[in-house]
Design a protein that fits this description.
Number of domains: 1
Strand order of the largest sheet: 1-3-2
Number of helices: 9
Distance between the termini: 17 Å
Order of helices and strands: EHEHHHEHEHEEEHHEH
Structural class: alpha/beta
Radius of gyration: 16 Å
Helix content: 40-55%
Number of strands: 8
CATH topology: Rossmann fold
Bound molecules: BIS(adenosine)-5'-pentaphosphate
Shape: globular
CATH architecture: 3-Layer(aba) Sandwich
Strand content: 5-15%
Largest sheet: 3 strands, parallel
Length: 221
């Protein structure tokens, strides 16, 4: 069975944390637009350099560039059985472009879980976050520390703090979410695909709720 999901939620809600687990459990791809931009930036492509200017201010990268990058990524082999989209779409323009591209393939998004977390908690999570330089796995210095300080549990690369996790950029990213991404809640609700998940629980409890809500033929435990 094909599985195509969008994980919605504000910056710091735990989309990346949960998307990795969901993708592993279901044997589908994890496609994170922010990770793709950071990868481009890491190898110095033109797209990466353009994206950098927006990311460091907490603004969104323009829709045309973002849509092209993500659509290319979901055409790759490892996404043929399905994918969890993390951080995309983020505007109604991106959502309609995605729907249109999928329609042309006779496909559609199955579900759009929304991880809900209050602003104060988001700030606490983002300001204590560390990310793996190799596989991008997120950690938190208090809530989810790596077993060995400074080293990723999964791939043993070093972990670092993201430039856009500075207080002033966190504030801008939260404002951008309110202004440009909140309308997607109504967009997916009107399609009957939105599922609200309480994100202010332990990581494992959020995973369980997501699994129960999505339950693709028991693929999620
Ligand atoms: P992106 O990388 O997508 O960042 P984001 O959406 O701001 O989301 P985050 O990665 O910050 O948070 P998350 O929800 O994944 O939380 P995480 O699991 O890490 O985007 C960065 C930038 O790229 C954007 O600002 C924009 O410029 C650009 N961009 C990306 N996509 C774009 C698009 N579609 N269009 C245009 N521009 C785009 O968790 C956060 C922390 O909390 C971690 O430390 C984690 O360990 C901890 N944590 C997680 N769950 C829990 C829990 N249940 N309890 C306690 N702690 C927890």
């Amino acid at each position: 069975m094909s599985k195509r999901m969008i994980l919605l939620g504000p910056p710091g809600a735990g989309k990346g944390t949960q998307a990795v687990i969901m993708a592993d459990n279901a044997g589908i791809a994890h496609v994170a637009s922010g990770d793709l931009f950071r990868k481009h930036l890491g190898v110095g492509t033109e797209l990466g350099l353009i994206a950098k200017g927006y990311m460091e201010k907490g603004d969104l990268v323009p829709d045309d560039l973002t849509v092209r990058m993500v659509l290319e990524r979901i055409r790759e082999d490892d996404a043929s059985e399905g994918y969890v989209l993390d951080g995309f779409p983020r505007t109604v323009g991106q959502a309609t472009a995605l729907d249109q591209a999928l329609l042309e393939l006779g496909q559609s998004i199955d579900k759009a879980p929304l991880i809900e977390v209050g602003k104060q908690e988001l700030i606490r999570r983002l300001s204590g976050r560390w990310v793996c330089r190799g596989c991008q796995a997120p950690y938190h210095e208090i809530f989810n520390p790596p077993r060995k300080v400074g080293i990723c549990d999964k791939c043993s690369s070093d972990i670092y703090q993201r430039e856009d996790d500075k207080p002033e950029v966190i504030a801008a990213r939260l404002d951008t979410y309110e202004a440009q991404t909140i309308p997607l809640i109504e967009y997916y609700q009107s399609q009957g695909k939105l599922i609200r998940i309480n994100g202010e629980q332990e990581v494992e409890a959020v995973t369980t709720d997501l699994g129960n809500a999505i339950s693709f033929n028991g693929s999620f435990s």
